[in-house]
Amino acid sequence: MTRFRVAAYVIRQRSVSELLVFDHVGLPQAGTQVPAGGVRPGEEPEQAVLREVAEETGLLTTAVIRPILVENKPHPDTRRPRRTTYFHLQAPAATADAWHHTVGGGGDDAGLTFACRFLPLPLERPLADDQDAWLGHVDPRWRTSSGDRR
């Protein structure tokens, strides 16, 4: 069965455009990621992406700009089918540069602490699981090596 997911390119506009990313504290092998996760039964993708951003980063002030595309790609470990809708979101310019957030609730990430920060675009290094592959669909100047392969 296909797992339905969402992923968020949360962009903050300052002197340069910046992307919100996070790392798992104490789990460096997970790599740098963008907020992403499953869509609950009956939940609209736009609701799911805002919920995932809030759960994984604590940010409640982001706004959905638009969906970017739908990627059909198996999970990197289990190889099970998954369908991820990528979204462009905006964060206020006044959002902090970096912070730690501990995930609450009863989901798979509950209790994990994420080190959140903004990185200038274009990125210098790819994200985990090629999550940066579609940044060029938001702005062609942000295309990455992952996106160039598509």
From TrEMBL:
CDD domains cross-referenced by the UniProt entry: NUDIX_Hydrolase (cd04663)
Keywords: Hydrolase
Location of the Nudix hydrolase domain: 1-144
Domain of life: Bacteria
InterPro entries named among the record's database cross-references: Nudix_hydrolase, NUDIX_hydrolase-like_dom_sf, NUDIX_hydrolase_CS, NUDIX_hydrolase_dom
Transmembrane segments: none
SUPFAM superfamilies reported for this sequence: Nudix
Signal peptide from the UniProt entry: none
Family: Belongs to the Nudix hydrolase family.
Protein name in the entry: NUDIX domain-containing protein
Source organism of the structure: Actinoallomurus acaciae
